[in-house]
Amino acid sequence: MSWITYVRGDATVPSVKGVKIVAHVCNDMGGWGKGFVLAVSRRWPEPEAAYRTWHRGRAGNDFGLGAVQLVHVERYVWVANMIGQRGTRTGSKGAPVRYEAIDTALARLAGHARDLGASVHMPRIGCGLAGGTWSRVEPLITGRLTAQGIPVTVYDHGD
């Protein structure tokens, strides 16, 4: 079994060879404009446009908690928009993070990574604006990705 590799840096600039998937968590309301998605949008316009189109057409597609949308952004780079949070604000039902949805999305992501022969790169998904804790998310990544032999790098931004 492999382990998660932790590095300092920007998850939108994975510095390994081969096919890469940059994975992140989105909300189920169609909102895109805070957190890691800003870094994604600065680098590539396609993931935001695809997410907004996916949300607009949700009555006739799979948009919803646990869903994954793969967007091709460069020759060897894909972005995985994973729906893993209900809404955008903490309320009476707690933080927006939905661990079950992240788990489902990671299982789907594993299939895409295997099909593409890709490594996965991400920030600490679900732990920023979604309000989740890494101690709950990390085992999901380990169980769904690294235990299946898929290399995962987690990026901590900053100095």
3D architecture notes:
With 159 residues, the protein is of the alpha/beta class. It is built from 4 helices and 6 strands, in the order ββααββαβαβ. It has helices spanning 36-43, 46-56, 99-116, 134-144, and strands at residues 5-8, 20-27, 68-74, 77-85, 119-122, 152-156. It has a 6-stranded mixed β-sheet with strand order 1-6-5-2-4-3, sandwiched between helices. Strand 3 and strand 4 form a beta hairpin. 39% of the residues are buried.
What share of the residues does DSSP label as strand, in percent?
15-25%
What does the overall shape look like? globular
What's the pLDDT, averaged over the residues? 95
Question: Sheet bearing the most strands, described?
Answer: 6 strands, mixed
Low-confidence stretches: none
Helix content: 25-40%
Sum up the structure in keywords.
159 residues, alpha/beta, six-stranded mixed sheet, 23% strand, globular
List the helices and strands and how they pair.
Blueprint (H helix, E strand, L loop, with lengths): L4 E4 L11 E8 L8 H8 L2 H11 L11 E7 L2 E9 L13 H18 L2 E4 L11 H11 L7 E5 L3
Parallel strand pairs: 1-6, 2-4, 2-5, 5-6
Antiparallel strand pairs: 3-4
Brief account:
This protein is of the alpha/beta class and 159 residues long. It has helices spanning 36-43, 46-56, 99-116, 134-144, and strands at residues 5-8, 20-27, 68-74, 77-85, 119-122, 152-156.
